[in-house]
Amino acid sequence: MPRSDVEDPIRRRRFLMPTVILVLLLSFVGFSIYLQERHEEGVSRARGDWELSFASLPGWFPEGFVGQLAALRDIPRGVPLHGSHWRDQVQAAIASNPWVAEVEWIRRTGDEISFQAKFVRPVVAVEGRQGFYLCDSRGGVIDLQRGDELSSRWRVPTYRPERGLLEEATLGEPLGSLEFDELLRLVNVLWDAGIYGRWADQLARLSTRREGGQDRLWVLEVEDGPDLDWGRAPGSQGVVALSDDKKIAHLHRTLRYLPELRDVPQVRLWDATGPLVGVQR
């Protein structure tokens, strides 16, 4: 069994928590959604057919995409809006939505309910048979964007699992395997370093290859440019040729020179002491 397969869970949590917390804090964006009740005189319990009006979604949210936010229409079902605990019940229902990280406030004016919350930012999209599963920095599945092409507005990399397209995933739950654990460790390091904030259009895809049939090595694929060979995932117990910080520095330098590297097949990020361009490891 490869050494990375027996990683100590306590050590792994100690490695992951600072990165996860930092990325989450940077990823949440305030937004407001208004639920407009189609009021029927004498009815104290909502019918669950409210209209949604998105007041201020983040700029990276694709226009027209609703996904799991549509589930907010069902919030009024079973909630007695004239009861004493309606606010707590509405808040619990809103907080259960995978897009919502934290509910900041809820207000009701007449037949209108508004709330403001912190919004979860996807960091990677995993390719599946039904489309692209948008995942947060903890690996939880936020939503599914159907179709063959991921909207460029998300500004996140895509990843196709080693065994092919993901059959299905449960929204709100982590994908949960060593492969996806490594994926999340890598994308969190890249987001933390500001790589996708600046270079999302160029670094559109992540992939893997195997060395000696055992070690999983990660590759950053570039649009109209060389593959950027990262090597083993951050936090791996196997031998790592270069630290993550030095790989990030090498990556920044390489991205600045991308126009001059269009005809180069590969750049070895794990070999910053050698030539910038090299053959496969």
Structural features, described:
The chain contains 5 helices and 12 strands. The two termini are 22 Å apart. With 281 residues, it is an alpha+beta fold. Helix content is 22%, strand content 25%. β3 and β4 (112-119) form a beta hairpin. α1 packs across α3. The strands form 2 sheets. An 8-stranded mixed β-sheet has the order 7-6-5-8-9-10-11-12, covered by helices on one side.
Strand content: 15-25%
Largest sheet: 8 strands, mixed
Structural class computed from helices and strand pairing: alpha+beta
Question: Level of helix content?
Answer: 10-25%
Number of helices: 5
End-to-end separation: 22 Å
**Unreliable residue runs:** 1-28, 38-48, 277-281
Chain-wise SSE layout:
Blueprint: H1 9-27, E1 29-36, E2 51-54, H2 86-95, E3 100-109, E4 112-119, E5 124-127, E6 131-135, E7 141-146, E8 158-159, H3 178-192, H4 195-199, E9 205-211, E10 215-221, E11 227-231, H5 244-256, E12 266-268
Parallel strand pairs: 5-8, 8-9, 11-12
Antiparallel strand pairs: 1-2, 1-4, 3-4, 5-6, 6-7, 9-10, 10-11
Protein traits:
281 residues, alpha+beta, 4-stranded antiparallel beta sheet, 5 helices, elongated, disordered N terminus, disordered C terminus
What is this entry, summarized?
It is built from 5 helices and 12 strands. The protein has helices at 9-27, 86-95, 178-192, 195-199, 244-256; strands at residues 29-36, 51-54, 100-109, 112-119, 124-127, 131-135, 141-146, 158-159, 205-211, 215-221, 227-231, 266-268.
